[in-house]
Amino acid sequence: RALVVSLFFKSYLAISRKLCDAGIMSPEAIPKEERSGGDTFHTPALQSAQLFERVYSEQSSHDPIGKPKVHVSALKQATGEAIYTDDIPCMDGELYLALVLSTKAHAKITKLDASEALAMDGVHAFFSAKDITEHENEVGPVFHDEYVFATGEVHCYGQVVGAIVADNQTLAQRAARLVHVEYEELSPVIVTIEQAIKHKSYFPDYPRYVTKGDVEQAFSEADHVYEGSCRMGGQEHFYLETHASVCVPRDSDELELFCSTQHPSEVQKLVAHVVSIPAHRIVCRAKRLGGGFGGKESRGIAVALPVALAAHRLRRPVRCMLDRDEDMLITGTRHPFLFKYKVGFTNEGLITACDIECYNNAGWSMDLSFSVLERAMFHFENCYRIPNVRVGGWVCKTNLPSNTAFRGFGGPQGMFAGEHIIRDVARVVGRDVLDVMQLNFYKTGDYTHYNQQLERFPIERCFDDCLKQSGYHAKCAEIANFNREHRWRKRGMALVPTKFGIAFGVMHLNQAGALVNIYGDGSVLLSHGGVEIGQGLNTKMIQCAARALGIPLELIHISETATDKVPNTSATAASVGSDLNGMAVLDACEKLNKRLEPIKKAMPTATWQEWINKAYFDRVSLSATGFHATPNIGYHPETNPNARTYNYFTNGVGVTAVEIDCLTGDHQVLSTDIVMDIGSSINPAIDIGQIEGAF
Hints:
This protein is an alpha+beta fold and 695 residues long. Among the domains are: 1-38, no CATH class; 86-187 and 241-330, 2-Layer Sandwich (Aldehyde Oxidoreductase, domain 4); 511-629, Aldehyde oxidase/xanthine dehydrogenase, molybdopterin binding domain (Aldehyde Oxidoreductase, domain 4, 2-Layer Sandwich). The strands form 6 sheets. An 8-stranded mixed beta sheet has the order 3-7-1-14-11-12-13-22, with helices on both faces. Helix 8 crosses helix 9 (301-314), helix 12 (411-429) crosses helix 13 and helix 16 (537-549) runs parallel beside helix 17. The longest helix has 26 residues, at 577-602. It starts with a helix and ends with a helix.
């Protein structure tokens, strides 16, 4: 109703302005500051500039590191020729699988009847919890607290109850709608964090605490103590390619899976568990993904496991790609968070203590929520030094699809709380928020509340560079002036610094492998444990191998990521893909260089192809595996106090100016300036693409 009135008033302003201009109405009829209320937003002509470190090398050198090389799949993706999972041509005898989903948030299944669906021509099978053992049905990325098919109870709307396999997609989906499910509703249905707190609906072993210093004493000595709270909702991943899987049964009980997943080894392991055959008979392959953002780290199993089970039982290829509405219903989102905090600070705005409670909405199963919560707890202070800290964390169990990894993995939610705290402090002491930020910034050598020393901490430089680059103070004056002159349109500007820890929160995941094969003609086939999600990982790995072997990029090719080339891989996640896999690629290349060294010494003027030819005839192995495990990490206050939690930190500062239409809530970003410190970039073009894309 408010919007209708606003739009009516907006049209009144627009028409009145035209009448004023035509001389029909008096120019004084509409006050000057109200006139712009009749405007709507139009996309401005975009202007942008990207600045990065320029790397020089000799003309003869093939070293591509640090240069803005084009993404190896860019042209294929731009023309639509790039092959994704569902673009694999249909195979002979292939069937399509459609999921039967729960229509209740919390209920007991009293009846499950697929007879009407199975009576349809072209429908081959229906699978549910009755078709596998209880042990086989229990799955999950870390804790096996989920089910391939719901057993007895459903815990969220959109939980997989069963799967129909038919000749084609249309038929399978129509048949899935005919599967008759009766429910007896259960209570309570818990959706929000507040409801979870009210019902004490938490996962076991929570809350957990991280403490540093003496919070209570610091509060008693503080000039001001302020209590507040903030919340952050979920967010849909909206990768362009939804979850997809194709499974082909091969000879001797082997299964070959083509899967849109960030974690092929996880899919391989859980398929082996569900169909009860060893992992060495299952190959999971991923050539490229149409985006992931964390949504395909663990949730791909909802599609891959029913597809693999159906292919294994029916001995025919089976395919499934979720429609967008199914994907959004089933797969969970970014974790919503609620923070309640109490902060102590001096009259100048120097923070001395913080006691904060972090609640995340995990959904109905654990998934990776424990790790997301830990990262939020480790990032809540953002770039600000707080000497006395108590952080409590609760993982809330609710009747929502299980929430999962999402770009930043709890870090952005934690930093969101830190930025609220710093603004509250600035408001209470009546100082400019930028001054309060600078007063509280960590310095090189400081320790975080999880006992990690900041060896190099360039936030001040990022901050100063960003202020200068954006013309911050001049823009602030322009904005104040604009807001005085316009009643219905307002402008604002915000600056946000960030500190993000680089490493998996779980120790054993910080490892990677690679396989480098050199063929007789001198061409190189590279395999590594990371998945190309569009982020340019393969391009960077080719650059690493080109530098290590001293050959042109054109001689190196990456075909796909597959569990039969590099086993036991970690998910491509946590911003460590190029760090881990790049080091593994270097390790493999160094082994090959050692073997080729005597030949290069004997033939110093020969070409790469001649060296390889000679090595082959001298019976030198031209294949090597590489491995890397991140050193000195895995901090634990009792068992490993000297290790670090994160390998290092990246820092950035962003300044954005926006304009809002107060009548409609419409908004427009006017300008953005970002300064990121990511060390020396392997490929500035790709890294800038990642920074802009993430923003």
